[in-house]
Every structure is written in structure tokens, then in C-alpha cells.
Amino acid sequence: MCGLVLAAGLSVSAAFADGIEPGLWQVISRTQTGGVIGPPHESSKCLTPQDTSDLAIAFSPQSRTVNSTCTPIERSLSGSQLNWRLTCKGQLDMELTGEFNFDSPRHYTGTVQTKAAMAGMAMIDSQQNIEGRWLSACPQ
Question: In the chain, helix, strand, coil percent, each to 5?
Fold first, then answer.
């Protein structure tokens, strides 16, 4: 089996030009696979000003692959909208696309689509819906 690992910092927040506020963020994600929506997964993350300084990097996946080669990530950041796409080919072929809308300094939504195939057979076809909400300043 292929050792393709993609670590997406999708539950980690960052900032657009006007800034998403540093602080404690609640992130709720729901994954849909095969028409079935899984239960919500809730997490929290304390974001420093350094964490919130580069939206395009913080909300794009990072790839570490074995037996697959990834093309450079395609990113488009326009106002409060971030779109990206990452494609990997090899033992496991994978395509990841993401769309994020940073509608205020204390709220964002996003959708990440994941499609993967091995030897031409579909292995993964899922969509993750993400919502981030600012809660408070980080605990001391």
C-alpha cells in the first residue's frame, strides 16, 4: 500500500488581509462519504498572532509522499476567499481541493473535497465541511 500522507492544516486558522483574530478557536467539521454525513467533530485551537499571519499557507495542505509525486499546489487568494488544489500521482492518485470563506475576523467556513484512486479504482470520495468560530483570548 502507498505511504501517501497529506497533513492539511485545515483546523488551524490564519489571517486574510484584514486579519482573523488570534485567540481560542472552535472548529467543527463534518465529513460526507458515499452520501452519508458523519457526526460533527469538534476541536479547539489557540492561535497566536504568528499563526494568523499567512492564510494561504495555514489553510493549504502540506504533502509528504512515498511512491507518489505531487504537483505544486495551486492557490488563489482573492479578498476573503481562498481556493486551492493539490494533485498527486503514483501508487495512489489523489486530488484535494479546498474553498474557504473568511466572512469576518471571528468566523470562517470551508469545504475540502478529497478523491483518491489506486490502480484506477476509487478508494476515497469525500467532502469535509468546516466551520471556525473565535471563542476568546487564549488562556494564559
Answer: 5, 60, 35
Domain ranges of the chain: 5-136
Do residues 58 and 13 make contact, with C-beta atoms less than 8 angstroms apart? yes
Q: What is the pLDDT of residues 58-113, one digit of tens each?
A: 788 887 777 889 998 999 988 889 999 999 999 889 999 999 999 999 999 999 99
Looking at the DSSP bridge assignments, the partners of residue 128 are: 31, 112
Question: What does DSSP assign to residue 10?
Answer: T
**Interstrand relation of 23-33 and 41-47 (parallel, antiparallel or unpaired):** antiparallel
Confidence of residue 18 (pLDDT cuts 50, 70, 90): low
Q: Nearest Cα to 62, choosing from 112, 15, 6?
A: 6
Q: Which residues pair with 70 in a beta bridge?
A: 88
Please give the Cα distance from 114 to 87 (Å, whole number).
10
Separation of first and last alpha carbons in the chain: 44
pTM reported for the whole predicted model: 0.80
